[in-house]
Each structure stands twice: as C-alpha cells, then as structure tokens.
Design brief:
With 258 residues, this protein is α/β, with parallel strands linked by helices. The chain has a single domain, classed as Rossmann fold. The chain has 10 helices and 9 strands. α6 links the parallel β5 and β6. α1 crosses α8, α3 runs parallel beside α5 and α5 runs parallel beside α6. The protein is globular, with a radius of gyration of 18 Å. The structure holds NADP nicotinamide-adenine-dinucleotide phosphate.
C-alpha cells in the first residue's frame, strides 16, 4: 500500500524521524527526508538505500522557513515525479520550564514555533496537491503530554496540546476530501532529545518501537495512535479526572507531597 506513496518525514536526522525512515526503508517506499543537518541526512539516505528496498533522498530544510517548506515540497515533486502523499512532521524539541525561577516568554514562543507553527507551514505546503488529488495523509506527532498541562512543561504541553486540537479540527474540516488527518501521541521514547532528561521516564520505549507504531498509524483510519499502552492508559485516566483530583495526584507523583 505504501509503495505508491511519497512520504515526507521532517526531523529525519535524529530520534523518532530517523527510526521511522529506517523502518520504512525496509519496504518499497519513496522517502523524502528533511531536517537542517544535511550531512546526517545524507548518511541516513545511504543507510536506507543499503536496506535495498526504498528510494530515499535528502531535502535539507529549516521547518521554521515558511517559503522553504513550499520549495522543499516542490523539489520533492520534481525528484520523485509525484506529489507528497504522506506528510509526517517529526521535527520538534522539548525544554523544561521553571516559571518560579526563570520565566521566559521567548522560550515558550520558540517551542510553539518549532513544534506547532512548523506543522502549519508543512500542511500549507502539502495540502493543496493532496486536495486536488483527493488523496493524502497528514500524520502529526504530538505527545501524551499534550493531553494536559504538566509541571516543567509549560511551553511543551501547550505546543503539543495545540497539535492535537488543531489536527482534530482539521480532520473534521477535511472529512470526505480524501485527505486523512491523524495524530500520534508517544509517551517517553529513547532519543537524543530524552537522553538529556534528568528525571525518571516511566515505560521508556525505543525509537524503533515508536517507528513501528507510527507505521501502524499510516495503515489505520483512526485519528489517534498512542503508546506505550501502559502509560497512555494512565494519561487517559488522568485526563478524565476532575481538576482537584488530577492536581492531587500530579503533586503526589511529581513533587512527592512537597
Ligand atoms: N522522544 C520522546 O520521548 C518524544 C515523546 C513524545 C513526542 N515526541 C516528539 O517527537 C518528535 C521527535 O522527537 P525526537 O525525540 O525524535 O527528537 P530528536 O531526536 O531531538 O530529533 C528532533 C529532530 O527535529 C529536527 N529539527 C529540530 N529543529 C528543526 C528545524 N528548525 N528544522 C528542521 N528540523 C528540525 C532535528 O534535526 P536537525 O537538528 O538536523 O534540524 C531532528 O531531526 C518531536 O516533535 C517530539 O516532541 C518525542
């Protein structure tokens, strides 16, 4: 099924995006790989090609460049002779917040720009052709953290919540258009991003596991793919609690009663 698609992955030079490219590279797919680090992308292209199945090309891009997103999509079209039909924006980052000691709107705005605005630019670049062809998938990457605001995650929770809500809305708006809109919500995944974390990460999964779940998402019609189940069930339970009970549990777990 994926054989006929052109799959554009941003954030492909590292972590989840890289693992996704390598997992998809085991199949007959056409992969357009983007990130800022052209050298890492070129190495990844070689690794994907070495698997002997997929066609892969690097398209270096700063996803914050609105016009750049459009020219990147045009380059992909020219290279493969076909439009991007599956868009998987994995570019993103995380920074802990500490509003008591160093509140910075700049920090939060940067997170919103990279995690959320870049998604908007990417959609703007791929959507017209998808609508014209009545065919396509937009598969955003949010997080279980996007379900609610958590301590130390001011800008991150906000950016990931924005992704979930925006994609839910887009899915309604594009119903019957032939363009499917989906959202992947991972828990903790071992990548260079989380390697920086100084706190315990329950139910940590590998990037390869995350990549397999994302490929599952490409094959399903449902909106949300969440994992690992053990953690997402906890988050889904917390989400439906009344605020006072939710707060009590989070304080107990995160601040250990402090
Ligand atoms: N790891 C987790 O536990 C976890 C959990 C839930 C959700 N997520 C989400 O999954 C996504 C990927 O995370 P990850 O853990 O794989 O992180 P990662 O290993 O740090 O990879 C981030 C990727 O984003 C790219 N990127 C960053 N800024 C960019 C820019 N301005 N333009 C283009 N590309 C840019 C980086 O490449 P360059 O530096 O080369 O540009 C890199 O390829 C993020 O959206 C993250 O929020 C991760």
């Amino acid at each position: 099924m994926l054989e006929d698609e052109v799959i554009w992955i941003t954030g492909a030079s590292s972590g989840i995006g890289e693992a996704l490219a390598l997992e998809l590279g085991k199949q007959k797919t056409r992969l357009a790989l983007s990130a800022r680090s052209g050298d890492k992308l070129e190495q990844l292209v070689q690794r994907v090609r070495a698997l002997g199945q997929a066609q892969a090309h690097a398209f270096p891009l700063d996803v914050l460049d609105r016009v750049g997103n459009r020219s990147c999509v045009a380059q992909i079209r020219e290279c493969f002779g076909s439009e991007v039909s599956i868009f998987v924006p994995c570019a993103g980052t995380y920074k802990t917040s500490d509003s008591l000691h160093r509140y910075s709107s700049d920090e939060h705005i940067q997170l919103m720009q990279l995690n959320f605005f870049s998604l908007l630019y990417g959609i703007e670049a791929v959507l017209p052709a998808m609508l014209e062809r009545k065919h396509g998938q937009i598969v955003g990457v949010s997080s279980l953290v996007g379900y609610f605001g958590l301590p130390r995650a001011f800008g991150y929770s906000a950016s990931k919540g924005a992704i979930i809500n925006a994609l839910q809305s887009l899915r309604f708006e594009l119903r019957n258009s032939g363009v499917q809109v989906k959202c992947v919500n991972p828990g903790f995944v071992k990548t260079p991003l989380t390697d920086k974390n100084d706190f315990e990460m329950p139910f940590l999964v590998t990037a390869e596991f995350a990549a397999r779940k994302m490929i599952e998402a490409l094959h399903k019609e449902r909106f949300e793919t969440h994992f690992p189940l053990s953690l997402s069930l906890v988050f889904k339970f917390l989400r439906i609690l009344p605020q006072p009970l939710f707060e009590w549990i989070i304080k107990k777990v995160v601040y250990r009663g402090r």
